[in-house]
Specification:
Elements lengths: L1 H7 L4 H23 L3 E3 L1 H7 L5 E5 L3 H4 L8 E2 L2 H4 L11 E5 L4 H12 L5 E4 L2 H7 L7
Parallel strand pairs: 1-5, 2-3, 2-4, 4-5
Length: about 140
């Protein structure tokens, strides 16, 4: 009871509101992570996945970013065009999505799963992680 009185005290109300917001954000992140239908994978898992013949490697970076290199045998569709070109991709195949750091790819991975793609993977860390792991880069 004393804790409740403390938290609702006029001098502590800002702290209480901040605490409630932080708890809600934490719960939201946990729930969102459980509901996402794609898998974040590291470079080693991506390399293993690339051994499969029915894999689409999708680069969603902008055209100018590709000049710094790309992963062999990928398909390049800039993030702004992915939605309009979904019908060019086979939703029965596994899809590995990558970008520069992984955040744009995660967005597109979510888009793909919402559009009936069943096996979608996001390269965690994107090309940054790929380069750091000394994986081959095409130019």
């Amino acid at each position: 009871m004393e804790v409740l009185e403390f938290l609702l005290d006029d001098e502590q109300i800002l702290t209480t509101v901040t605490l409630v917001i932080l708890i809600m954000l934490l719960i939201g992140n946990v729930v969102a992570d459980k509901l996402k239908k794609y898998e974040d994978i590291d470079v080693d898992a991506a390399v293993t996945l690339m051994d499969e013949k029915d894999l689409i490697i999708l680069d969603v970076r902008e055209k100018k970013e590709r000049s710094a290199g790309y992963i062999a045998n990928d398909i390049h569709i800039p993030i702004s065009q992915v939605k309009s070109k979904l019908n060019t991709l086979d939703n029965k195949k596994k899809v590995l999505v990558y970008c520069h750091s992984g955040s744009r790819a995660a967005h597109i991975a979510g888009l793909l799963t919402r559009n009936e793609f069943e096996h979608v993977y996001n390269l965690k860390g994107g090309m940054n992680a790929w380069k750091k792991a000394n994986q081959p880069i095409k130019s």
